[in-house]
């Protein structure tokens, strides 16, 4: 998919409404990114003065960046998302659209987009990113794949994801399924190590996470029922003891490069 073929700002606006509606749940049940990812990003930056976490949501990527950069900025189109989450008081937050960044030119050493590029990967956005970055500034966007638990649990979740919720995912979700391989930024990409999110969750935490899915919200609005509740018996059987904590893994896919080199 070329940059001109990805979802428009209308799709981005729809995503803002979806995620703002349950910003507290989103902050509570989303997994955290590995520390090694941020260490690797900082090591590839010529300087570590200023970084922007674009479409920051509740700060999942912003807070870890404070360990590596002197100044961390975070923006999102949703004010509700920016108010959710904890432990990111050191981050300068502001509401902004990805296509209209209120930054001076050549300000950023790093610009990251975590699990959101598919909403606005347009030529206009990449122009904004290039203008905001320093000559040797690094750009990195990433998404994570469908979670992996065990063959039995995976099978139940895959049916929910690919069958029950088919047609309810917002435009752009196909790019996540493709690991962003269909998005072609207008600059060369560099290779990155394999990263993954990992968490040890109970069944209740997994169910809470599934209910943050945008397609779950869409399906529930149309049918007046909770699609996750429909699979809870099968999920419980596949999981085992409800209080058992199991390793859950989400592979990460990165698009990284230097737009101004």
UniProtKB/TrEMBL annotation:
It holds the Pfam family Methyltransf_11. The keyword Lyase does not apply. Coiled coil: none annotated. Signal peptide: none annotated. SUPFAM superfamilies: S-adenosyl-L-methionine-dependent methyltransferases. GO terms for biological process: methylation. Residues 52-140 form the Methyltransferase type domain. It comes from the Bacteria. InterPro entries: Diverse_substrate_MTase, Methyltransf_11, SAM-dependent_MTases_sf. Belongs to the methyltransferase superfamily. This is Class I SAM-dependent methyltransferase.
